Known about the structure:
Radius of gyration: 39 Å
Mean pLDDT: 78
Shape: rod-shaped
Order of helices and strands: HH
Low-confidence stretches: none
Structural class: mainly alpha
Helix content: 25-40%
Number of strands: 0
Strand content: under 5%
Amino acid sequence: xxxxxxxxxxxxxxxxxxxxxxxxxxxxxxxxxxxxxxxxxxxxxxxxxxxxxxxxxxxxxxxxxxxxxxxxxxxxxxxxxxxxxxxxxxxxx
Length: 93
């Protein structure tokens, strides 16, 4: 009986050690290093660009006003939207 058990174990569990060797361990992926948003260069328009855009829009509004046309001058938080102005043919904003 012991010889039969020994034979069965030899067939099921080979003595090469392959079944009992640990599986290869892969190291966990390293997380991306933290980059502070303050380390990036400024990406929005600068003060000079913003002032230039405002001046151009004001000049355009003044030119339309001299022709008797209401220019839809709006801004964030304005009490009225550009849609509330009557549409004037030839007005290119």
